[in-house]
Amino acid sequence: MHSEALPIDWVFQPFRWQPARRLAEWLRQWAARQLDRREAPRKMVENIAANYFDGTGAAAGHVVRDVSTSGAFIFADFQWPPGTIVTLTMELTRAAYNRRPPSPVVLRTRVVRCTPNGLGVQFLLEKEAERQTLANFLKNIPA
Predict the structure, then answer these.
(1) Domain containing residue 104
(2) Which is nearest to 117 in space by CA: 64, 71, 70?
(3) Nearest Cα residue to 112 out of 70, 73, 143, 83
(4) pLDDT value at position 69?
(5) Partner of 130 at 20 to 30 A CA spacing, among 5, 18, 57, 138?
(6) For the whole prediction, is pTM greater than 0.85?
(7) Other Cβ atoms within 10 Å of 74 Cβ, number
(8) Total domains in the fold of the chain
(9) Are residues 107 and 70 in contact, defined by beta-carbon separation less than 8 angstroms?
C-alpha cells in the first residue's frame, strides 16, 4: 500500500482561511437579522407614558422609549414572561404637548421581549378601527 501525507500547509498559513471568514461574516449577518424582527420602523420618543396594572397596586405609569405601528419598548423594573397579554393605555404627557393632548389609546399587547431595563410589546390590533386609532395617535406625537 502506498500512502501520501495530506497537505496541511493551509493550517500554517492563515491568509488561506478565507472560507472560514466568509462563513463567520455570514453567520454574524444572519444573527443580526434574527435579533431584529420588527415589523415596522420604530420612532424614538420621550413624551409617551404607558399605564398598566403590574400587580403591585394601582395602575403604574412607565416611560415609552420607542414606538411603531406594531409595538413599543417600555421602561419598567417589573417584567412579565414573553407571551403575557397586557392591556395598556398610552398617552402623551402634558409637558410634551402645548395644547390639549389627544385622547389616550387603549391597546391589547403581548410581551415579546424582556430586558433588565423593561419590556418589548407587540400590539394585538384585530380590527381596522384599532389600527386607525393607533395611527392617528402616533401622528399626533410631537417631534
Answers:
(1) 43-139
(2) 64
(3) 83
(4) 85
(5) 57
(6) no
(7) 25
(8) 1
(9) no
Q: Is the pLDDT of residue 38 over 60?
A: no
**Residue 57 counted as domain residue:** yes
SS3 27: helix
Nine cell digits for residue 75: 421602561
The alpha carbon of 132 is separated from its chain's Cα centroid by a whole number of angstroms, namely 21
First and final CA of the chain: distance in angstroms?
Answer: 79
From start to end of the chain, where are the E strands?
43-44, 48-52, 60-67, 71-75, 85-92, 105-115, 118-123
**Which tens digits make up the pLDDT trace of 1-21?**
565 665 665 556 555 556 667
Q: How far apart are CA 103 and CA 86, in angstroms?
A: 20
Quote the pLDDT of residue 110: 93
The verdict on residue 127 lying in a domain is yes
Which helix H or strand E contains 136, and what residues bound it?
A: helix 128-139
Per-residue pLDDT reduced to its tens digit, 75-132: 888 778 889 998 888 888 765 556 666 788 899 999 998 888 899 999 998 899 988 9
In a domain, 78, yes or no: yes
